[in-house]
Amino acid sequence: MKMPSRTTLARWAPLAISAGLAVGATVVLRHVSPYASNSVLPGCPLYALTGLYCPGCGSTRCLYSLVHFDWSGALAMNPLLVISLPFLLLMLLNNAGVRMRALDPVMRVLANPTFWLVLLVGYAVMRNLPWMPFNLLAPGGA
Questions:
Q1: How far, CA to CA in Å, does 129 sit from each of 43, 45, 73, 123?
Q2: Quick one: which of 52, 28, 22 has its CA closest to 42?
Q3: What stretches in the chain show pLDDT beneath 70?
Q4: pLDDT tens sequence across 58-78
Q5: Distance between the two ends of the chain, CA-based, in angstroms?
């Protein structure tokens, strides 16, 4: 039996690690609620220190809702995460060599770090604005 080459392992490693982390997170979030007052799951340190929402605020509750098939609850906690998950999967698959030519323009945008920097900083600013519709981006859709 031929062993996979080092480059093959390196290509598939991020996808395999991400899949393992996703399975682990799913198991934990099926049994531990971030909504419980005595939850062992951590809150956002930036929010605790500043009272400002970061781009990741609400992610644990969002993932908890997704694991429990509560789509509206997930969108209320972190809509960007819900929208981004399929694109993150596409990026992992693309990195592993699974490519669909029709998605090449999308992959070029997703592979650009400037896109993610602008998106995340813009999202962080918008979800801290206190008026409609931006306050809907805050965790819980304040």
A1: 21, 20, 21, 10
A2: 28
A3: 1-6, 141-142
A4: 999 999 999 999 999 999 999
A5: 58
Quote the mean pLDDT of the chain: 88
Query: And the tokens for 29?
Result: 């979030």
Rounded to two decimals, what is the model's pTM? 0.81
Helices then strands, each counted (H, E), the chain: 7, 0
CA distances for 73 relative to 62, 77, 82, 103, 140, angstroms: 7, 6, 10, 30, 8
User: Contact at 8 Å (CB) between 54 and 124?
Assistant: yes
pLDDT digits (tens, 9 = 90+) for 111-129: 899 999 999 999 999 999 9
Angle at 25 between CA 23 and CA 28, to 5 degrees: 110
pLDDT score of 6: 59
Tell me which residue of 55, 38, 37, 54 sits closest to 46, measured CA to CA.
Answer: 54
CB atoms within 10 A of CB 17: 11
Amino acid type, 52: L
Which pLDDT score, from 0 to 100, does residue 100 have?
84
